[in-house]
Amino acid sequence: MGILDDKVAIVTGSARGIGRATAELFAAEGAKVLINDLDADVAEQTASEIDGDTIVFGGDLTKPGVCDQLVGRVIDAWGKVDVLVNNAGYTNDAPIHKMSDEQFQRMLDIHNIVPFRMCRAVAPHMREPAKAEREQGVEVFRKIVNVSSVSGTMGNAGQANYASGKSGVVGLTKTLAKEWGQFKINVNAVAFGYIETRLTADKAADNTMEIDGQTVALGIPSQVRQLVPALIPMGRPGRPTEAAGGVFLLCTPWANYITGQVLTISGGQFGGMTS
Questions:
Q1: Which of 31, 103, 131, 142 would be 9's cystine partner, CB 3.0–4.6 Å?
Q2: Of 90, 162, 194, 257, which is the active-site residue?
């Protein structure tokens, strides 16, 4: 028996890193999981390596209609959605005086617009069953977890675009928690600190991704990477599995009375500051 037996979960950006660790944990706990990535081949490979019931959707979620197509894929396969994790994202850093309009807009699109569209796309599949359950006097909890960052709650030099997108998703989370609480839909966010993924790896020539035919450099400078652990009370960056644990926590029955919150998962980085 798993904690998420018979649940259907969507995890965007789940072929790599934190998203993959989250999908693996969900599947291990009994959930059916949609694996999503910009690169369908990578998503297929990940799905084949996860021990559980999975389906795949590859595509650019920032394009019009694609979020609706993703949700449609899940409904066609499994008929419902119980959990949505809005995890897809990347970085495109620059100081603000050197940042283009396109760089800024890209981060808003993936980190703010996509979660909005995904929540809107799952709305009928979460709200309508809840209305029937409410009439029957039954409580069935469904979960949405939006992925933010300490860059969004605290700010971070060189990331005006990323921080704006990640801050915006906090406002979306808190608003949706108020709108959908009556339907027993828990809407929370996680704010990750320094987690070891390709976004926090060395800024190297081979650490890139392709977006609309353009190469986007990922990672952070090695000198910055060397300094960050000293700022973390636990003395090291987090692992993707540890980040996934926080997401999972908010999707369990023990979080049924938690909504509209931002859970910081940072090993104590920025401890004592409000979020």
A1: 31
A2: 162
Interatomic CA distance for residues 48 and 61, integer angstroms: 22
Q: Is 127 helix (H, G, I), strand (E, B) or coil?
A: helix
Residues in Cβ contact with 99 at an 8 Å cutoff, skipping those fewer than 6 apart: 160, 161
What is the pTM for the complete model shown?
0.90
pLDDT digits (tens, 9 = 90+) for 80-122: 999 999 999 999 999 999 999 999 999 999 999 999 999 999 9
Label the pairing between strands 214-217 and 208-211. Answer: antiparallel
Q: Specify whether the CB–CB gap between 34 and 74 falls below 8 A.
A: yes
Q: Is 257 a catalytic residue?
A: no
Cα→Cα distances 66→18, 61, 74, 81, 116, Å:
22, 5, 13, 17, 13
Q: Choose which CATH entry (1.10.565.10, 3.40.50.720, 1.20.58.220, 2.30.38.10) describes domain 8-265.
A: 3.40.50.720
